[in-house]
Amino acid sequence: MAPKILITGLNGYLAGRTAEAVLKAGYDVRGTVRRLATGDKVKDALAEMGYPEDRIDVVEVPDMTVPGAFDEAVKGCHAILHLAAPLGELYGQTTPPEIVRKTVSSTQGLLESAERHAGDGLASVVYMSSVAAMFEVEAEPRRHDETDWNKLAERAVEELGVEAGPFNAYCAAKTASEKTVWRFREEKKPKFGMTAVQASVSQIWQVVAGAEPMALPTYQSYVDVRDVARVLVWAALHPEAADGERLLCSGGRGGGQAFADILAKHVDGKKEWDGIQLWKGTPNQGYTEGYGPYPGELWLDAGKAVRVTGQDWMPLETSVIDSADVLKRYL
């Protein structure tokens, strides 16, 4: 049997691609989900892609904030990719302080389970952080990299409580949770390597659906989900190089208008796109040639991850076109 790599939150968007990358690398997958039915859907999808079902093990963890929730799931795993986070209630009834508490406690619990129950074969734990742990809610329009930290979101949640709002809650939760990872490493000095990965996201669905995309409040950077999965798996399999590192994933600065212009060229004359009205916007505005830094905005410098992994980011054109060709099925 191939060694297993645990992926928490297997039914998530990023986790699905990460599971594919793990299987491609020759390792088996164990994934945690809140309900087995959702995990079975991922298992079925991977099986349709040609991966045998016996290489994918699904474990139910109904509440990841409960002490010992991951004790059984971590046993015998070669590496752990912690992608799950209890952030689904950001716009619900849960208060920002409670969201931060739950996110931190679930990360702390996963690390404690790894230390006590995974066994000597555990080589690495990789935590999926966020660029929200790198810059403030009102971000400075400058270069940001792995040396930067969000210093104000946690204080905002502490001082404002319920009034802090979902964005502060998200930034504070991801920042505090990543700090928990590094505190654990410093205090416990575990035998396994520990790495944090930060990623950025962009809005493409709206462009495909014909609606004006909502700009993210602080940045317009992008990265392909397959690149994030690649970096996560690289970190898991190279603990000697990745231990103690933060790895920022960002392919450049795109934004809704760049997506629209790329897709306008891509769909021109293609019958399969007949009848689909893309959002057009104002062509050739709001981004730079080569999708680099844009005046007046923060810039995410992800050169470190390129250097250590030896592989550059996927071109924006490839990422946008591949994503749109999938998304149009849902129109």
Strand percentage lies at: 5-15%
Helicity level: 25-40%
Record field, number of beta strands: 11
What is the number of helical segments per DSSP (H or I, 4+ residues)? 11
- State the order of secondary-structure elements, H for helix, E for strand: EHEHEEHEEHHEHEHHEEHEHH
What is the rounded distance between the termini? 42 Å
Protein name: NAD-dependent epimerase/dehydratase domain-containing protein
InterPro entries: Epimerase_deHydtase, NAD(P)-bd_dom_sf, NAD(P)_dehydrat-like
Domain NAD-dependent epimerase/dehydratase: 5-189
Organism: Apiospora saccharicola
Structure write-up:
The chain is α/β, with parallel strands linked by helices. Helices cover about 40% and strands about 15% of the residues. The chain has 11 helices and 11 strands. The protein has helices at about 15-25, 35-50, 95-115, 155-160, 165-190, 205-210, 225-235, 240, 255-265, 305-310, 315-325, and strands spanning about 5-10, 30-35, 55-60, 75-80, 125-130, 145, 195-200, 220, 245-250, 250-255, 300. A 7-stranded parallel β-sheet has the order 3-2-1-4-5-7-9, sandwiched between helices. A two-stranded parallel sheet has the order 6-11. β4 (about 75-80), α3 (about 95-115) and β5 (about 125-130) form a beta-alpha-beta unit. The longest helix is centred in the middle third of the chain and has 24 residues, at about 165-190. The chain is globular, with a radius of gyration of 20 Å. The mean pLDDT is about 95. It comes from Apiospora saccharicola.
